[in-house]
Amino acid sequence: MTPSPPPRTLRHVAATAALAALAGCASMAPPHATPPPPVPGDWLGYVAADTSGAHAADLSWQTYFRDPVLQRLIETALANNRDLRVAALRAEEARAAFRIQRADQFPAIGIGAQGARARVPGDLNVSGASVVAGEYRAEVGLSSWELDLWGRVRSLKASALQRWLATEAGARAVELALIGQVADGYLGLRELDERVMLARRTVEAHEESYRIFGRRHDVGATSRLELTQVQTLLTQAQALLAQLELARANQLHALGQLLGAHPGPLPEAAPFDETLVLAELAPGLPSDLLASRPDIAAAEHLLRAAGADVGAARAAFFPRIALTGSWGSASAELDGLFDSGSRAWTFVPVLSLPIFDGGRRRANLALSEVRHDIRVAEYEKSVQTAFREVVDALAACRWLAEQRDVQRIALDAASERARLAQLRYDAGSATYLEVLDAQRALLAAEQQLVQARRALLSSQVALYAALGGSSQATVPPVSTY
Questions:
Q1: What residues pair up with 345 in beta bridges, in sequence order?
Q2: Same domain membership, residue 239 and residue 211
Q3: Pair 159, 68 in one domain
Q4: HSE-CB of 117 using CA atoms within 13 angstroms
Q5: Which of 113, 257, 320, 408 is 20 to 30 A off residue 43, Cα-Cα?
Q6: Do residues 282 and 160 touch, judged by C-beta distance below 8 A?
């Protein structure tokens, strides 16, 4: 019959169980309190009370960007962009760091075996005769498990968890920024396509005018001055066309870098339908940014991590208790290692508390508290930045829409002026210089209208990104035990 363990052993086991039950129950981290948003409660009058459309957080990018070509480009970028890939890997890195830190909550148990033989000379032995002795052990061991009575390990785990969540939110911020950059790059490419088309059409018209005036000059029907005036207008249009072609090539290269792949087939150069690109959008309230902006979420997670670091620094002022032990079998001979009566165990609790460390722990606590204050300021700054980006985008949407409407009126006026100037010249009531000036103004008005339309669409893309877009992806469930 197996003998019962001595009462002292039972007391040790009971005390260990009680301490283990207490481990992790305490935490010295300051209670988390999200700072109040340091921004106004509205959008400074840029939004009417009856604003229609859906909230950005409720719109996926597939719903907001309705152009099929743009949707294909965004999908390509999400699959191939290297910045987004690095951000995702950073999140995986933080997840692994959290799992490493979480493992410190649990005891590390391992199996080990060892054997040793030694000869002790006679002059070192009481009997005066040399002795050959051996020791063989096989055991299950517990190596230095800290009882987290003051929450130090728990706070370090909470800090690692919040840093992981911050990198997850950061990855979503990179994704949202990438979507906005691809959309803006695509709109820029479409703008340049349309401007190139207008410039090419103008060049063709001026080439025909130069050919006609050249023949008229040859027969003496027009002066050399008028011919050089037509030639000047032609060369200006050709220079503009070359400039636009270069800008389009650079825009295409930049878009390809964002995509991480070749853009593939793109639509023919033609005016794009503004209503096809973007859906209607309602900005909501400034307080909605706290839930929708991934960069604000990342800043709050980092603030929570800094609070947990303060808790760990406070816990360092209290004693640390670590347990080390083993249970197994030991024998002087290998063949008797598992015989009856060879059971062996060790139990080594260790309590440590530095008395003098040159102020290291106090300085570490002060450092943690200062870093926490820094995170508070960074969180508030991220909220202010988000508010600024939204009101900038709202102001741009409002005034660029007005600028586009004015530019349309200006184009109509320039077109009518060019028509009337041509009629006056044909009737002999004006010089051709008046026609050239009107045509130059018409080309400029056409280019400016395209630029205004693109700028308005870009402001709507910026508004979608500033409001957080569809960045509220579900974070994988995290075990915090």
A1: 327
A2: yes
A3: yes
A4: 4
A5: 408
A6: no
pLDDT 10s digits, 438-479? 988 999 999 999 999 999 999 999 999 998 887 544 334 444
Residue, of 413 and 117, whose pLDDT is higher: 413
| Contact criterion met (CB below 8 Å) for 415 and 439 | no
Rounded CA separation 336/330 (Å): 8
Q: Say if 472 falls within a structural domain.
A: no
Amino acid at 153: V
Pairing of strands 281-282, 54-55: parallel
Structural domain of residue 346, as residue ranges? 115-147+319-352
The pLDDT score that the predictor gives to residue 18 is: 47
| Nearest-angstrom CA–CA distance, 433 and 219 | 21
The answer to whether 457 touches 187, Cβ cutoff 8 Å, is yes
Q: At residue 281, what are phi and psi to the nearest 5 degrees?
A: -140, 135
Q: Which residues contact 106 (CB under 8 A, 6 or more apart)?
A: 145
- Give the list of residues 6+ apart from residue 128 with CB closer than 8 angstroms, or none: 122
Cα–Cα distance for residue pair 246/289, rounded to 1 Å: 39
Name the residue with higher pLDDT: 426 or 25.
426
| Residue at 378: amino acid letter | E
Same domain as 330, residue 314: no
pTM equals: 0.82
Q: What is the mean pLDDT of residues 387-413?
A: 92
Exposed e or buried b for every residue in 459-481, given b needs 16+ CB within 10 A?
bbbbbbbbbbbbbbeeeeeeeee
Element (H, E) at 348: strand 343-352
Q: For residues 12-39, give the mean pLDDT.
A: 66
CA–CA dist 459, 457 (Å, integer): 5
- Checking if the pLDDT of 179 tops 80, the result is yes
78 and 37, same domain (yes or no): yes
- CA 255 from chain center: how many Å? 19
Asked if residue 5 is part of any domain, the answer here is no
Burial of 439 (0-12, 13-18, 19+ CB in 10 A): buried
Closest alpha carbon to 190 in 464, 457, 467, 465 = 457
Alpha helices (H) along 58-151:
61-64, 68-80, 82-103
156 and 79 in contact (C-beta within 8 Å)? Answer: no
Residue 5: how many CB atoms within 10 A of its CB?
Answer: 11
Domain assignment present for residue 8? The answer is no
**Are residues 313 and 330 part of one domain?**
no
The CATH number linked to 31 is: 1.20.1600.10
Helix (H, G, I), strand (E, B) or coil at 117: strand
- Residue 476 in any domain: the answer is no
In a shared domain, residues 74 and 221 = yes
User: Does residue 390 sit in the same domain as residue 440?
Assistant: yes
Residue 53 phi, psi dihedral angles, 5° rounding: 105, 170
